[in-house]
Specification:
Blueprint lengths: L2 E4 L6 E5 L4 H13 L3 E5 L5 H12 L3 E4 L3 E5 L13 E2 L4 H12 L4 E5 L10 H9 L3 E6 L6 E8 L3 E2 L2 E3 L5 H11 L2 E2 L2 E4 L7 H8 L3 E4 L3 E5 L8 E3 L4 H13 L4 E8 L6 H9 L2 E6 L9 E7 L7 E2 L11 H10 L2 E5 L12 H11 L3 E5 L2 E6 L7 E3 L4 H11 L6 E4 L11 H8 L2
Parallel strand pairs: 2-17, 3-16, 6-7, 10-12, 11-13, 20-21, 24-25
Antiparallel strand pairs: 1-25, 3-5, 4-5, 7-9, 8-9, 13-15, 14-15, 17-19, 18-19, 21-23, 22-23
Length: 433
């Protein structure tokens, strides 16, 4: 593993554009690959995770060309995907694996979906159950605790039936898997969710000509309308921006402008949380050149923060930002409580346990609970050696905290940051003084 070395800084300043949104980049590749006709994708995130998705669909017979600036895809359309000559490898990406499973399920092909050690430990019965209900032959390996099924997934695709599915967990990956499978099913597929979760898949399906109906709690997709190729511009990744926002909030005399960031309301729970904490953040919306995704600029100033409670409906819309919210809570006055976030235990790592242990080693007064954590602040971030446990968001959260310390720190497992934010270290150097 490689280490990221962080030196203390005096302030955060400047104006930056961030790499493309990871969630949208995955979906753009997948939906363009099964659409009719040609697509062009600009702003695509060339991270390890997203490049693995490109490789997977090339192995499924899709013509994908990348010149480093623009990705061109000739959609497989009704000709369909082809049985790959080798296992489909997704690295660390649960999004790539779960959404691709939905795509493969609707074609008469066989495929094995694999990933790295971390991905191979993540729960997959949440997609196996609905895909099986639709008529797909899909199986996996018993989980170590025998309470779930994990990758590798073996899929024998073919004719699917539309279903009504009540999701037991509010998960955009599960919802998207079912909707993508529903594009090739016989009849309408309806997915019901108790809490709202990110809706990038629905927006792209509609933009590409699909027949989709969205209500407050459900999404219905009708396969009568085939997807057609489209020109897609991917905005900057909000989840990546959250780390730089946090850096500017907690570093004295800081002012930072982040441009062209995706501001989809199903992703920006983090902004609502930090506003309640007292963050000085201004937003200017500008959708010029983008489809129905909201996009804009974010201006951040160093701020005094107060404790908050983070729970309930806002959790699905801020789930990826919980590690950095926990970090911010260590700088806030009072007791912050995070609950209803048990899903964090099933991410790239057990993020509840790992962010708590790392922040404790940095001097935080923090306690782990079954579905979250309790943080008493403020506390000074103490320099040290931190272990990401192979999780990109843990690594970046600890790097941001380390900027405020009075000594040098190191974060083990820095290479995993490339799964979502390639160029993170260079970006920090650009904005720190």
């Amino acid at each position: 593993m490689s280490n990221l070395h962080i030196n203390p800084v005096s302030k955060i300043t400047g104006e930056v554009n961030l790499p493309g949104d990871k969630s949208i980049s995955h979906r753009a590749i997948i939906l363009a690959s099964i659409a009719e006709g040609n697509s062009e994708i600009r702003g695509f995130l060339r991270s390890d995770d997203c490049l693995n998705t490109v490789s997977v669909f090339r192995n499924l017979g899709v013509d994908i060309r990348d010149d480093g600036k623009l990705i061109k895809i000739k959609g497989a359309g009704k000709k369909g995907l082809k049985t790959p000559g080798k296992d489909l490898y997704f690295g660390n990406s649960g999004t790539g694996m779960r959404l691709t499973a939905g795509a493969v399920a609707g074609y008469p092909i066989n495929a094995v979906l694999t990933g790295d050690e971390s991905l191979s430990a993540r729960p997959m019965s949440r997609i196996i159950t609905p895909l099986s209900m639709m008529g797909c032959n899909v199986s996996g390996a018993p989980a170590k605790d025998k309470n779930d099924i994990t990758a590798p997934l073996k899929i024998k695709g073919g004719m699917l039936e539309g279903i009504f599915y009540d999701m037991p967990v509010s998960s955009a990956q599960v919802k998207s898997c079912i909707l993508i499978a529903g594009l090739n099913a016989d009849g309408t597929t309806i997915v019901n969710s108790l809490l709202p979760c990110r809706d990038h898949t629905e927006k792209l399906i509609e933009f590409m000509g699909g027949k989709i109906l969205v209500t407050e709690k459900s999404v219905a997709v009708n396969p009568e309308a085939r997807l057609h190729g489209a020109n897609i511009i991917v905005p900057g990744d909000f989840s990546s921006a959250a780390f730089l926002i946090a850096a500017a909030l907690v570093t004295k005399k800081s002012e930072l402008l982040i441009k062209n960031i995706g501001l989809n309301p199903t992703r920006t729970g983090f902004l609502k949380i930090i506003h309640k904490m007292g963050a000085d953040v201004q937003i200017n919306y500008d959708n010029t050149g983008y489809y129905s995704e909201q996009v804009g600029d974010i201006f951040i100033k160093e701020s005094s923060l107060n404790a908050v409670e983070v729970s309930g409906k806002i959790i699905p819309n801020s789930i990826d930002e919980i590690p950095v919210i926990a970090l911010l809570a260590t700088f806030a006055e009072g007791t912050t409580v995070i609950r209803n976030a048990g899903e964090l235990r099933h991410k790239e790592s057990d993020r509840i346990s790992n962010i708590v242990s790392n922040l404790k080693s940095a001097g935080a007064d923090i306690q782990e609970t079954d579905d979250g954590m309790i943080i008493n602040g403020p506390s000074e971030f103490k320099a040290g050696k931190f272990d990401s446990k192979g999780d990109h968001r843990i690594a970046m959260a600890m790097a941001i905290g380390a900027l405020t310390s009075d000594k040098n720190s190191s974060i083990e497992g820095a290479e995993f940051i490339n799964t979502s934010f390639p160029g993170f270290e260079e970006m920090l150097k650009k904005i720190t003084r």
